[in-house]
């Protein structure tokens, strides 16, 4: 297996201060990135296979139907995927590119070493003409350390991960990608759209309870990283669509009054019924997306959707170049 290039910047001290601040806040929260440790990444792969989680299979169907057109439109020599996970969906695009090009370099970028290894094993034997490069990093904190492409590069950000960002962070992330792009580069973005609330709520409350395990696992991650003493048994998984903000909000809800010790040795009291936000997942309208793209200097070249308009892929170019 190729060596994993680690471009993560060690911010442990500032991260500790951030954790303390987030947990002492009236509206408690934890950084979503901690959902995706090695176990979390594995659990998320299982979530993607559940009957209720329409996002992955819908996006996969759109990719399969439109891969040839996307590749003909872009003709990439490099593919760079943010938050690649196992790269299962990306295989369709890679196969189409390899039919057109003699060689392709694929960059798998993820915070989880486990996910990077899964990506490599998923793609390694596709073709001797495919060069798989593995990069460990956080796509908000480390994006400015990513090197620009040498040839026309296709950036991928699939799975509607953009929905995990609030508006300010989403615009900043998209701007950073626009700044990374050369004139010949393109950006394929997958986003979940506004739809019936029942369908959305079911996707984050699967019958098998995998999302519940995924959500609670964040406690084990921060316990290990910051020497905290959260107990899973003291919390319930709570995920519900907020129609005003057009987003799923995933919480851990305390079932008892209890306290934990913070990294600075302070005791933090948590009351029964108190909630800790672990993730948001925004659902986008066309107007919201147009506003985001405009503020990030990105221009829509193509839009691919399923028949029900549940999900869309947008092929974007940087507006830096006339």
Tags for this model:
single chain, 322 residues, alpha/beta, Rossmann fold, eight-stranded mixed β-sheet, three-stranded antiparallel β-sheet, 9 helices, 13 strands, globular
Describe the structure.
With 322 residues, this protein is of the alpha/beta class. The protein folds into 2 domains: 114 residues, no CATH class; 177 residues, Vaccinia Virus protein VP39 (Rossmann fold, 3-Layer(aba) Sandwich), CATH 3.40.50.150. The protein is built from 9 helices and 13 strands. It has an 8-stranded mixed sheet, sandwiched between helices. Helix 2 packs antiparallel against helix 8. It is globular.
Order of SSEs, N→C?
A: EHHHEHEHEEHEHHEEEEEHEE
Question: For this entry, what is the oligomeric state of its chains?
Answer: single chain
Sequence of strands across the biggest β-sheet: 1-4-3-2-5-6-13-12
CATH topology-level name of the largest domain: Rossmann fold
The dominant shape is globular
Helix content: 25-40%
Q: Please report which band the strand proportion falls in: under 5%, 5-15%, 15-25%, 25-35%, 35-45% or over 45%.
A: 25-35%
Question: What is the makeup of the main sheet?
Answer: 8 strands, mixed
**Distance separating the two termini:** 41 Å
Number of domains: 2
